[in-house]
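Lab notebook: predicted structure, single chain.

Context: the supervisor wants predicted structures on file for every construct in the current expression panel, including those that have not yet been purified. This is the next one on the list. No modifications to the sequence; it matches the entry in the shared construct table.
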Amino acid sequence: MAKELKNAALKEKKDAALLSVVAAVILTGFKLVVGLVTNSLGILSEALHSGLDLVAAIITYFSVRVSDRPADKNHHYGHGKIENFSALMETILLLITCTWIIYEAINRLVTHETDIKISVWSYIVVITSIIIDINRSRMLSKVAKKHNSQALEADALHFSTDIWSSAVVLFGLICANFGFFAADSIAALVVAAIVLLVSYKLGKKAIDVLLDRAPQDVIGMVENTLSTFPEVKKFHRLKVRTAGADTFIKVNIHLNPELSLLEVHQLCDKIENTVHELIPRSELYLHPEPENLEHIDKENNELK
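Prediction complete. Output recorded below exactly as produced.
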């Protein structure tokens, strides 16, 4: 049953990632053609952005396929971090986008080569882009939250910013239609600023996971959960790390030394089940210790 659920989750993630690839192909080609015809830097910057979106979507698709492979003798914690690596690659691609957009926009503003040809297709391509990005961003976000996938979450965040950048380009086109052609280059710079902000957020989150930075929200949930069990006198050495959709937790808990081995085992199972309900795809490693261990050791030493 568990295997069937996992296969169903993988299929849903793959389908979402593949749909994103198809949408990126359509948008990239559409924007590129219209951008070249109209000489609009705003649309061309969006075409390049969508081109890198396509590369990112392809990376995401393959990372999703690999990340859910089970642990093996060479990868004891599974392959989940491929999703985080994918998110980092998206960040690098976004930074490349920004470099070109900023350079070209500033060059046009300095040389005053800002004339563009506005046509009905200019508006069609941008409005179409906004509609497609709204739908795929919602779809990716829904699947990402359902299956705790950072790769799909990165894609969803990525495409949600595309909506705003396309809206900025649309504003630039409207201004250019009234003779203010510099607005197109200014709009491109705004797009670059939005992309830089997204790059920072995506990159920071990906690097945090790759460097095993402890997720504070998960730590809080585990601490609150352990506090609800009166049998747990105290706990220490709580360590949390994530890899893709998986979360690995280790903690030492202090229990009444008079509890039997069976009682300790049952309590640990209860704690593990509670944590797993709160944090899907989590693995909890509990190390039970008798409370007042130092006092017991001291008495044993005195008896010797």
